Amino acid sequence: MKKRLLFFCFCLLGQNLKASDFLERVEKVLKETPLIDGHNDIPWQFRRRVNNDLSQLDLGSDLSLLKNPTQTDIPRLRDGRIGGQFWSVYVPIREYGGKSEHVQQVIEQIDVVYQMTTMYSDTFEMAYTAADVERIHRNGRIASLIGIEGGHAINDSLAVLRRFYQLGARYMTLTHSKSVRWADSATDMVRHDGLAPFGEKVIGEMNRLGMMVDLSHVSVATMYDAIAISEAPVIFSHSSVYQVVPHVRNVPDDVLELIANNNGIVMVTFFPSYVSEATWLYGVKLEKERVRLDAKFSELESSRKLKRWRQENPAPRPTLYQVADHIDHIRNTVGVDYIGIGGDYDGMSAGPIGLDDVSTYPKLFVELLRRGYSEGDLAKIAGLNILRVMRAVEGKAKDLIKTLP
């Protein structure tokens, strides 16, 4: 009996040593290479919770202790070894097309990012180029970049697009949940069968400026059109794989092939219904129940009954391992050179089990090592791939400027 117990303890010790070794290897990679996340919605949380008054929500403290905790704060960003973060400057679109008021709202969200970097200047520094990200990471700070989520932000104006670039935006997601007057969303009815003529002009101007074209949220037809038209690599800032979970927000295999030919990147997201088929199907069931209740009861009563239904039918949560499955699929389909990370923290109610908040990125990289990824693979996924895309977009912009009359 004693021999068996000693053998069991020895095995456990061996496992712990192996886990520690994996973590040390991850720490080494993330010290040398900035871990760059493609999408974080904490600026929206500032707007939603405290009307953009940063003094009322201290990002420097442990916000996991709040009654309604955020998924992002500086202590947990440090624990997560983040080296660069694209902060999403998002405002909702509730109907087709967008409105002029969205322009001001997005500028206000850009201002939140600048306030963050000023208020916490010992942690954050604004970045506009790949070289900036690398320099800031070497200096021990987190490079802060701006990504516009939704083309409704420009209100059909190339002039507004140019000024957003001047304010620091380095990608724009062409649509959000609703289509705009020049591009189709994945989650709205077909209106243009991809890009309208003005949408082609938007892509051209983004290439000329050096702003990355982000295809998360767009329809498959829009993906095809944008990749065909863009003279620079494109990105998916926070999407996963359709072959693994057939959600319309995910990227089909034929588009993965196009991304590889374009030298772009898919930044794999942690958003539950894009990661897990069970979670996605739960959402479909929830929506059907919402529609049924709305047709039968008053708004207040319907809301009350739906809340009770959700309590009785909790949503299944995906796991870290399922996120790794999406990464595996991209690697096996087109290779490791086209993978990044786009967590979507503070844009979802709860992250996958094991990836609950921004402190947990190293756990995912440990799992990738367990699956046979090399340290070089991890460096590419963490930051080298998106840095390559950024440099290519910056270089194409310089070429296009030279060609102007």
UniProtKB/TrEMBL annotation:
**Gene Ontology MF annotations:** metallodipeptidase activity
Instruction: Report the record's Gene Ontology biological process terms.
Output: proteolysis
Q: Which domain of life is it from?
A: Bacteria
Pfam families, per database record: Peptidase_M19 (PF01244)
InterPro entries to which the protein is assigned, alphabetical: Metal_Hydrolase (IPR032466), Pept_M19 (IPR008257)
Q: What is this protein called?
A: Membrane dipeptidase
Q: Which organism is it from?
A: OM182 bacterium
